[in-house]
Amino acid sequence: MSETFRALVLERDDEGATQAQIRTLSEADLPEGDVLIEVAYSSLNYKDGLAITGRGKVVREWPMVPGIDLAGRVLASDSPDWQPGDAVLLTGWGVGERYWGGFSQRQRVRSEWLVPLPEGLDALDAMTLGTAGLTAMLCVMTLEEAGVKADAGPVLVSGASGGVGSLAVALLSAAGYEVTALTGRPEGADWLRELGAAEILSRESMSAPPRPLESQRWAGAVDTVGGVVLARTLAELRYGGAVAACGLAGSHELSTTVMPFILRNVSLRGVDSVVCPRERRLAAWERLARDLPREHLAAIRQVARLEDLPALAERILAGQVRGRVVVDLQ
């Protein structure tokens, strides 16, 4: 790679609107950090869509290189933990929000944010997973820790056509769970069945505000939507069930009662992947490399370039992106 490289840079104009431009940078332009990375792939997440379009208060510092994920190789390191040539990945830690992120062919980062590329995954596969895959696996681990076993009954995954949802469907199915996929995109039903969903439900079927308690349906759930969908899921949990909540694509609000919790002994467990402790990250990535059938990765991704990102950012916010968008920076 040459001494200069390309990156997507966000700036604000005089009216405060976000402007996204591909620029040629040098290493002198990069922020402080003790490890320099040659980035092979990144990925486009919902949060990146908000940053690029300026529709959410995601970016905290300007100018900003968005991209909350990256994978590549170490070019130079001042940290004893990493050596040139090491294959690494990074998700979370405010990268792409407070710190420059993955939509750059080179990036300088803090060594403590990095984890080694798991054995069995290359950089393309790692970014097909990215934050979405890490979050999905953390949700699976959370349900397991809550005592939701594979033979306990159906598990609901909301927002199943999105990145986290589709990977949660694949992971849960591979672990032997009976998965019901909730989606607003009926045209994707066959694809979700290929990932392992046993049943497909329409978003409308879970969109009516629930009574305090509804008929018991779900042994557990992975919720990426929030709002009414999460409230209804809680009201429909079986005795002792649990929800791993990791998203708010529908709403950040939750209108419910304590009745499911005290009469059915259910639990609502939050899942965070941004500042998730290192040991738990490593455990989740090890399981992703081991547990997810590789054929699902090829089926779930589309590969894009930097030039494609502004248009794809609009599409991901409109719910028009299925699965995962991997950004090729090579």
Query: What is the name of the CATH architecture of the largest domain?
Result: Alpha-Beta Complex
Largest sheet properties: 7 strands, mixed
Count the E strands.
Answer: 15
Stretches with pLDDT under 50, minimum 5 residues: none
CATH superfamily of the largest domain: Medium-chain alcohol dehydrogenases, catalytic domain
Number of helices: 9
**CATH fold title of the largest domain:** Quinone Oxidoreductase, Chain A, domain 1
Structural features, described:
Helix content is 29%, strand content 27%. The chain is of the alpha/beta class and 330 residues long. It folds into 2 domains: 4-117 and 297-328, Medium-chain alcohol dehydrogenases, catalytic domain (Quinone Oxidoreductase, Chain A, domain 1); 132-270, NAD(P)-binding Rossmann-like Domain (Rossmann fold, 3-Layer(aba) Sandwich). The strands form 3 sheets. Strands 3, 4, 5, 6, 7, 14 and 15 form a 7-stranded mixed beta sheet that branches. A 6-stranded parallel beta sheet has the order 10-9-8-11-12-13, sandwiched between helices. A hairpin with a 5-residue loop joins strand 1 and strand 2 (18-26). Helix 1 (46-53) packs across helix 9, helix 2 packs across helix 3 and helix 2 packs across helix 7 (278-291). The model has no long low-confidence stretch (mean pLDDT 96).
